[in-house]
Amino acid sequence: MGYLSEKMLADMQLKGFAPSTKKEYLLRAHHFAAHYMRSPAEMGNLEIRHFLLDLLHEKKVSPATHHMYVASLKFLYKTTLERPEEVDCIPWPKTPRTLPVILSGEEVEQLLQAVQSIKHRTILMAAYGEGLRITEACSLQIPDIDSKRMLLHVRGGKGAKDRSVTLSKRLLILLRYYYRKTRPPKPYLFPGRYPDKPISDDAVRMVLHKAVASCGLTKRVTPHTMRHSFATHMLELGEDIRTIQRMLGHASIRTTERYTYVSDKHLGRKKSPLDLLGTKKGKVLG
């Protein structure tokens, strides 16, 4: 795609897209061009429709993958090529709402202990302990650790938004140990192959995959599972949904409600107003 790829990337940067979103959008656009061996600038609605149908009927892609292709091509034609009429009639696919995979507290502990590398274990503990996306955990910088106020600053979250979350005492202890052992060069706490770049998400995924296998877990566990588990465990500990929303960095409460399914433990602690009638707590009912 050449120049078109560069322009699409620049458009996404101006929109403040997350690195993972930029990577996925470009990949899907390249697949579209490779399918026809032509530039998207030379194609339009007919080719887009046939390509998306081929993904569904021949490639048998998942609803989530299909949704990503639609999102990528809509952005490509609406923003980069400035030809919105080519994709305006392309419907957004419905994606089934499936419950996320959740690890128990014991499984989280087991996984963390199975990770031999102090660097990767610290990243995964940050993802679980703070509810971070894997990209956010990998991109942490030394000044982001505010031990005086016990806060962790998250830079450039989804939608290019910064936020602060409560810093876990256990994570702080591990961060200090990791720093003393490795003395990572600035600016990143977890540098990758090049010191001026953070470790890649894929590198952490590979380590986690091996840890899952060594623990004998049959659940499909990804780095994002740690974030799911954090949110659900916070709910089970009685934290209110608004606080969880803020910690996760969700703009809408509806996103958090879909993200953190209501567990049986959480429901079991709730009381009917009937049980409060005639008690001190019941006075708030009037």
TrEMBL record:
Domain Core-binding (CB), first and last residues per copy: 1-81
Transmembrane segments: none
Keyword DNA-binding among record annotations: yes
Gene Ontology biological process terms in this record: DNA integration; DNA recombination
Keywords, comma-separated and alphabetical: DNA integration, DNA recombination, DNA-binding
GO molecular function, one term: DNA binding
Residues in Tyr recombinase domain copies: 98-272
PROSITE patterns tied to this protein: CB, TYR_RECOMBINASE
PANTHER family with a match to the protein in the record: PHAGE INTEGRASE-RELATED (PTHR30349), PROPHAGE INTEGRASE INTD-RELATED (PTHR30349:SF64)
Family: Belongs to the 'phage' integrase family.
Protein's recorded name: Tyr recombinase domain-containing protein
Source species: marine sediment metagenome
Lineage: unclassified sequences, metagenomes, ecological metagenomes
